[in-house]
Amino acid sequence: MVSSIAKATSQNVSDSTPDRQSGAYILLDSLKRHGVKHIFGYPGGAILPIYDELYRFQSRGDLTHILVRHEQGAVHAADGYARSTGKVGICMATSGPGATNLVTGIATAQMDSIPMVVITGQVPRSAIGSDAFQETDIYGITLPIVKHSYVVRRAEDMSRIVAEAFHIASSGRPGPVLIDIPKDVGLEECEYVPIEPGSVKLNGYKPKSKGNIRQIAPALELIEQAKRPLLYVGGGAITSNAHQQIKELAERFNIPVTTTLMGLGSFDQHHELSLGMLGMHGTAYANFAVMNCDLLIAVGARFDDRVTGKLDEFASRAKVIHIDIDPAEVGKNRLPEVPIVGDVQQVLEQLLQRANHLDLPFDPQRTNEWLARVKRWQKEYPLEVPNYPDIISPQQVIVEVSRQAPDAYYTTDVGQHQMWAAQFLKVGPRRWLSSAGLGTMGYGMPAALGAKLGVGDAQVICISGDASFQMNLQELATLAQYGIAVKTVIINNGWQGMVRQWQESFYQERYSSSDMIPGMPDFELLAKAFGVKGIVVNDPSQLSSAIEQMLAHNGPVLLNVMVKRDENCYPMVPPGKNNAQMAGLSKRPPSEVFPDSGICPECGHHNLQKSNFCGDCGTKL
Questions:
Q1: Considering Cα of 164, then 170, then 174, then 176, what sign does the dihedral take?
Q2: Alpha helix ranges (H) inside 209-366
Q3: Which is the catalytic residue, given 71, 188, 349, 400?
Q4: Fewer CB under 10 Å: which end of the chain, C or N?
């Protein structure tokens, strides 16, 4: 969190003569000056002075407010707007339950480093601490899940606080910033001198953008010497718009690229050097590669447990270069040989410029054997799309949607459908929006709502599950009210799918409270009730035409696809295993993945004998 004692200095205040305005006016005018077009929110008592002023701003066409049906919808919509555009997302709610309903979305944004300004109403200053009606200490509640937060005590501080909030939310490692505004501060008048965007500096807050030049040379030396290098790219590459630099680095040094769930879109997955996603449900060949590389170049990634599996065996024979803008992440889970703190794009640009300046005599042949091995793994362990004669497989749905809408922006909810989407969609930068760190069910449709308002005419498609969709289904009303043409595809297997898979695999098939068929609504009729077009399909022969119909409709659509109930999402790295010990592979992992590790690829035990058999299960290698 940014130090609460940091003070701002404004370098470019407006030249206009100060006039008296209310705190509510100053807030909204400051948002407008920072380029805000859309605010997602829900009114209530403590925030009514702001909504009253918003009525005037809307009538002049200065701002557009999107009335959601639940505050969680507002914060997820602001999140989706931010991810798809790279701009700061804005949401508002009243005090008490309105504010607490934002908490899940704030935590989602914090975990995934999403720039957001969250505005909450609060009881009047004189009532704070008295347990007044709808009073909660949202400042205190959200302290662990925001980048910074404010309680506005004086209307005259409003312009400065908004400028600071935008600066903090969008600079360095982005994140959500909370502004809590007591009701009487919204009404209070003061002289208003606007503070313009980009004019704020905070003492003690200076995110480092350029990498230390003394770390660039040793990083290049490791890259030049590596025979089995691997680029491991995370969400920081998306945030810094570093996709071009990643492509240049990969092609110059002949390095295969794997991405995290957050990093999808940072590298073209049609590129011959792409290995797709790694980790728990990553591709087998990406996980094999990370087990066998001799140099791991971590770019804007944080060595998350869903990526690393058993941490002490993750890239255990590799040296590590770790590039990240947040110094707290560098060395947190894995100590790198070369740590570089800085903006990913700028650091990669420094690496490329120095390589060009030195005219490094790089021999691309040095990694040819490595690339040939990886290519062989790709052919031998491909992602599989089951094709059943009379029922639709979930993977078929993702593949067909991707085929018909290759350039769409995609949001997901959380669960099996999320992992299948990550495996089979081929997305561009900022076209993949998914709750990765927190894993928030109900994120997908409101995030798509926000994204659609951010990207205009581009297609926006939400891939959801029947359980996840029911978390925030009320936002169908928001789509209908504003005619927001989001297309939502429900991969409907009648389960909390990932919960069921874990219960099958690790809890002896005790399916406790995971069956969603009892009480499941008729989604087609539900959509119709909200004024949204609903389509249902359960025949494989109808899938393509149903998706075509969905995409052709000029408005929101809910497509309910009935899929095979017990389909599991594979590959899967079980808990406590390393990345090469994946369940669901069509054949045993190649023995070359496990040299000198002492790990049996069949049973996973550390008991390989010198005579190349496992002392536990007897597997011969």
A1: positive
A2: 213-225, 235-239, 243-253, 284-292, 305-308, 344-358
A3: 71
A4: N
Instruction: Determine how many CB atoms are found less than 10 A away from the CB of residue 618.
Output: 10
183 is an active site residue: yes
Cα–Cα distance measured from residue 490 to residue 507, given in angstroms and rounded to the nearest whole number:
27
3 state DSSP class of 432: strand
Known catalytic residue at 134 = yes
Tell me whether strands 64-67 and 89-93 are parallel, antiparallel or unpaired: unpaired
Choice between 273 and 12, residue whose per-residue pLDDT is larger: 273
Among residues 58, 134, 404, 474, which one is catalytic? 134
Give the chain's end-to-end CA distance (angstroms, integer): 52
Q: Which of 430, 421, 478 is nearest to 458 (CA)?
A: 430
Per the annotation, the verdict on 133 as an active-site residue is yes
Q: Which of 87, 183, 487, 533 is catalytic?
A: 183
Hey, where are the domains in the chain? 8-202, 213-380, 394-562, 588-621
For tokens 């130090």, name the residue. Answer: 3
Residue 327, preceding peptide bond in cis (omega within 30° of 0): no
Q: Which of 441, 498, 572, 582 is catalytic?
A: 498
Catalytic residue among 133, 225, 353, 528: 133
30 alpha carbon, distance to own chain's centre = 28
CB 114 within 8 A of CB 84: no
Length of the chain: 621
Q: Which CATH class is domain 394-562?
A: alpha beta
Q: Kindly report whether the global pTM for this prediction surpasses the value 0.90.
A: yes
pLDDT tens profile 480-521: 999 999 999 999 999 999 999 999 999 999 999 999 999 999
CATH for the 213-380 domain, from 3.40.50.300, 3.20.20.70, 3.40.50.1220, 3.30.365.10: 3.40.50.1220
Q: What is the percentage of the chain residues whose pLDDT exceeds 90? A: 89
DSSP letters for 547-581: HHHHHHSSS-EEEEEEB-TT----SB--TT--TT-
Note whether 122 and 183 are within 8 A (CB).
yes
Query: Residue 375 and residue 369: Cα distance in Å, rounded?
Result: 10
Judged by average pLDDT, the poorest of 9-23, 436-450, 459-473, 597-611 is 597-611
Q: What are the residues facing 324 on neighbouring strands? A: 341
